[in-house]
């Protein structure tokens, strides 16, 4: 769905109380007890801000994605755990390939995702997504893409 | 080979050779002549609040440990072991009483002093063979702070920081001192862009002209109402000391309280700001009617203050971001982007301001996304042969006889020179400082330290 740029369709799969977060990872000594910043993310979104991001991509002035990137989300290592009768906890590994234009090398973003899926009247919906990116310094020019 | 005098002469008349945005020779000159003699920002004191707290930051290729020692003093230590040159600290942040080199276990206190080395007696014959006493990781040649911002210079002869900041200090206070508690920094987000470092610095220095078009999408979606051309062209551009910046025109006839409410500050913060700002700072808002927006302090530290709508209810929340364009090469830059907020603000304001920041700037910010797309593209275009034939016109605001097309704003409350409306006065000011540094053939004299 994201690779087909169906962002409106993607928004419809989100719960009203969606939390979509991607903490900044940092290089720390083994034993430091933390490897991400507690109070700074690349994303820390709710439905309002995700809607704004999607609305923006549908304007005629979102130059960052016009022409659009070609993306492929590779999802693997999926493990699911029943969290409650109506909620499913899902871990997965994500590799996003992003290609822009005809002269630049493609970007890769590698991350682990922890999702909370909730069974609603409309089907399964995403209630939480925590993205644990594997780089401390991102090698993509912006996050005009969703993970 | 480039003809440097010709390049600099063109730059000084506002006709910028396109190649300077992607040229290995120019970058080598910047590395050797500009960065070693400039005051460079490394960190904010709020990032290392407790003894032993450290962050590791760079000035181009030079890695420094910025650490608060056991007595509370901020130290900036060159992160290279005195013995074999290993990088002593390879984490980017943490807390440590000592730093031990992984190679031969030379160990340094967090004030830099060499505390121990293995087999001092057997290997070196004790103090006679190697005098351990008084040895220290190399400190940055010059270190100074302003409102908690930690700067270093690789030149021991750098002018005093406050003297160098000059008139820009007035504007810097808007971004870093809204209360006696100062600001706290969070982050940075770090990411690499295939763009020349100068483009971001120039853009933040004064490019109000790009806002209505580059950032049209954020107006389209109702995130931020100000960037429309009709609003943007009423703003003031100012040049002051080594910095320059842009402002937005506030609605007419407002009091200090009303103006700051308009940009989203809660009343308790406005009361504190009123007590903290100088008379001249308050007058910029009330008398001149301007609110600071983007700014750049030469060479590569930029600031931004905006006030987007952060929820469906239409709540306006202001935010401050401080960012550094850290050069990697002539065609690549690491961006370090911090969120800064008044340390004494309420938790709910900090939360709102943080959300405002994330939506607008930083790695995922809806303003910044489009900026970077432009800057990467400029850098790519500047690499070719045709770019060597092109002088980019950066003369906006000047007649053919080099006269400003309008007069400076009379009675502007801030120091320096200010113009209302569009113009490239600020970018030319930035480029003129850049030219001064590049034409300095001497460079900073370098004295070697031996143990």
Topology:
The complex is a heterodimer of chains A (147) and B (451).
Chain A: H1 7-11, E1 14-25, E2 36-45, H2 47-57, E3 70-82, E4 87-99, E5 107-120, E6 123-133
Parallel strand pairs in A: 1-6
Antiparallel strand pairs in A: 1-2, 3-4, 4-5, 5-6
Chain B: H1 4-12, E1 15-17, H2 24-34, E2 39-44, E3 53-59, E4 62-68, E5 74-78, E6 93-95, E7 98-100, E8 107-109, E9 114-116, H3 120-124, E10 142-146, E11 149-153, H4 161-165, H5 168-176, E12 183-193, H6 197-206, H7 211-214, H8 216-220, H9 229-232, E13 236-240, E14 243-249, H10 256-262, H11 267-276, H12 279-286, E15 290-297, E16 301-306, E17 319-329, E18 332-342, H13 347-360, H14 366-381, E19 391-393, E20 417-420, H15 425-439
Helix pairs in contact in B: 1-15, 2-15, 6-15, 10-11
Overview of this structure, please?
The complex is a heterodimer of chains A (147) and B (451). The mean pLDDT of chain A is 96. Chain A contains 2 helices and 6 strands. Chain A has a 6-stranded mixed beta sheet. The radius of gyration of chain A is 16 Å and the shape is globular. Classes of the chains: A mainly beta (147), B alpha+beta (451). At the A-B interface, β2 and α2 of A face β12, α8, α13 and α14 of B.
| Backbone shape of chain A | globular
Strand order of the largest sheet of chain B: 12-18-17-16-15-14-13-20
Low-confidence stretches of chain A: none
Can you list the strand order of the major beta sheet of chain A? 2-1-6-5-4-3
Estimate the global geometry of chain B from the Cα principal axes: globular
User: What value does the Rg of chain B take, in angstroms?
Assistant: 23 Å
Mean pLDDT rating of chain A: 96
So how many helices of chain A?
A: 2
Unreliable parts of chain B = none
How many strands appear in the DSSP assignment of chain B?
A: 20
Main sheet attributes: strand count, strand direction, barrel closure of chain B: 8 strands, antiparallel
What's the count of strands of chain A? 6
* Helix and strand sequence of chain A: HEEHEEEE
Structural class of chain B: alpha+beta
In quaternary terms, these chains amount to: heterodimer
State the helicity of chain A in percent bands: 10-25%
